[in-house]
UniProtKB/TrEMBL annotation:
Name the record gives this protein: Uncharacterized protein
Spans annotated as Disordered: 1-40
Transmembrane domains' residue ranges: 52-71, 83-101
Positions with biased composition (Low complexity): 1-12
Comp. bias intervals (Polar residues): 25-40
Keywords: Membrane, Transmembrane, Transmembrane helix
């Protein structure tokens, strides 16, 4: 704080922060209006859910091709295990896609 200016400049500045999907309304009287409407969306980085979704999609594709090439056609337990693991990966992928879409809306 400047000793020659007894008014703290932080007290005379109006600060408005918009949430996702929100609005900022400001009226600071007559004269020039300086309104800074920056939301956190501009600073958003790739989140954990996006990274996890990309990793699980790559894992799904890789495991699908592995299961496809390793399929014997006989009644073996290995084919059953590979199919079961693929179904679990598919369920996990669908749940991650739903979560990812909900966070974007």
């Amino acid at each position: 704080m400047n000793p020659s200016n007894p008014i703290n400049p932080n007290n005379s500045v109006q600060q408005n922060f918009a949430q996702h999907g929100g609005n900022v309304f400001a009226n600071q009287g007559p004269g020039n209006q300086i309104i800074n409407n920056t939301t956190q969306q501009a600073k958003r980085r790739t989140g954990f859910d996006t990274k996890a979704l990309l990793v699980i999609l790559v894992l799904d594709v890789a495991f699908f091709f592995y299961g496809m090439t390793a399929y014997t056609g006989r009644n073996t337990t290995a084919d059953t295990w590979r199919a079961g693991i693929f179904i679990l990966l598919l369920i996990l992928t669908v749940s991650l896609v739903r979560r990812w879409l909900r966070r974007r809306v």
